[in-house]
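Quarterly update from the structural biology core.
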Amino acid sequence: MSFFKKLFKKSAATTPTRDLNHASKLILGDIIEFSDSFTLPSEVRQQKFEVITVETLEFEHQHYPRFKLQGEQQTYVWLSLPGHDHNNFQLSLELTREEVSQLFDLDLFSDVFEEGFTELPSQLPVSLGDWHAERYYQQDIATVGYHHRTDFRTSAPSQYTDDNPGREFEFYHLHDAKENKLIDIMVHNNGDTDVYLTVQLGNDSITGYWPIA
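Predicted structure, tokenized:
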């Protein structure tokens, strides 16, 4: 069933079986719509997205869900809910290596992984629109985390669980002067490195919910 057919089916339902009014309640197949606020990157502004994956990121003192969202134009973003503030969420765009090299001087970017690093300027490529800031500052370096391809909102994940061990990674986190735009980096044990541009948003950035059931 196509994205639009599923959305029409949800819109036409007279009595939803689930009360969906917050990102924390999203499950596979749900659809959300973002507002027209200019605090949102243009790629998601006034666009609808479907939840196609639900995962868990685990750290020493917390774990939280993240949702992979697919847009109408095959655009993919990640929505996550770190911390305990249910009034906000984070929206992330995963970068390719080419995009990282467009956005940053790679020699300067490599300093992010070294002790003593403090500041990273960006080169502001137009292709990345409203996701990035002019300058970033380091907050977290080499924090150990675990990536679970499972939704653990109703149970506790553990890297020690034999039947569902998390994939270990080192987490690096940078933010701009206002702490509204972030860089999140996950370095996995095999050397794979995932780089995300992240924006902090309020719940009013989501204006519509269509539950799958």
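Helices lie at 3-12, 97-103, 106-110.
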